[in-house]
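Quick log. Single chain, no ligands specified.
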Amino acid sequence: MMRELTYYVAVTLDGFIAGPAGEYDRFLFEGDHVTAIGEKYRGTVPTALADAVGIPVDDGPFDTVLMGWNTYAVGLPDLPSPYAHLRQIVFTRDHEPPAGSDGVEFTDRDPVEMVRELKREPGKGIWLCGGGSLAAALVDEIDRLALKVNPVLFGDGIRWFGDRDYAPQRTAPTSVTAFGSGVVLAEYAKG
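-> predicted structure:
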């Protein structure tokens, strides 16, 4: 059985994963959704934060995380290896690895080609953490969507699938869970 690529991401009601300058502080980080989603998607909290607050990172659904440079750079300079408990792959054509980024793989390879190789390797699931341009490039390789839909509107920013041409694709809902906080975990499989 091939590994699956899951795009697991927080998104606003109007389809943004960050503001125009990469802002993400309006997403809800507290509420009844945090524990339930955190348990289901264990290991998706940065390693240092998980260690600091006692959140387990083992036995999660993923062993590999993919990020575009802008998603990765959100944690710099404090988190040069944000998910040290996972295999970390950052796609970039223009940036050099920062100090302290040991264990992070930086690549300028074609993301589709690389994901196809990763899917053939043994292991757990592959997590597409962001960003929008990388998701747009990988849209045909994404097997599952796990959206933490937050009850906020940004109006402008980074779209969760970047800017891509009109090309409708069907997905099949697998689970929808609404929380009192207003966050909805909406999960879909490739249709």
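Helices lie at 32-40, 47-53, 69-73, 111-120, 132-138.
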